[in-house]
Design goal:
OB fold (Dihydrolipoamide Acetyltransferase, E2P); 1 helix; 6 strands
């Protein structure tokens, strides 16, 4: 029997905030906590899912994710799923001890 495939499910692209001023926007569709293993060990990381308008965004209209630090994860928790948002990396906070300063963010929510 020959089957016809009518739907393809792909892994969404994921992006980070490398520079101050970088922003991503789209309809907020939720968050997912993933376990990440790197040279520092295993930790949990939050991925924020966004769906941009057709043809827009870094993925040209396809759903994508952005990695969130604790600051951004706390901010997005106050945003209702389904809201259209623009997340912007606004700078860094003060460093505590030998730790790197945390990246700071602003989330604009469209009406």
């Amino acid at each position: 029997m020959t089957r016809k495939f009518t739907k393809s499910i792909k892994q969404a692209a994921a992006f980070g905030f490398d520079k101050v001023g970088v922003s991503y926007e789209g309809t907020f569709t939720g968050t997912k906590v993933a376990k990440i293993t790197d040279t520092e060990g295993t930790r949990e990381a939050t991925l924020i899912s966004l769906t941009p308008d057709a043809g827009e965004g870094p993925s040209k209209g396809e759903a994508f994710g952005v990695w969130a630090n604790a600051v951004l994860a706390d901010l997005i928790a106050a945003v209702p799923v389904g809201s259209y948002v623009k997340i912007t990396h606004t700078g860094t906070g003060k460093a505590k001890g030998k730790r790197s300063p945390a990246k700071m963010f602003e989330i604009a929510v469209a009406e």
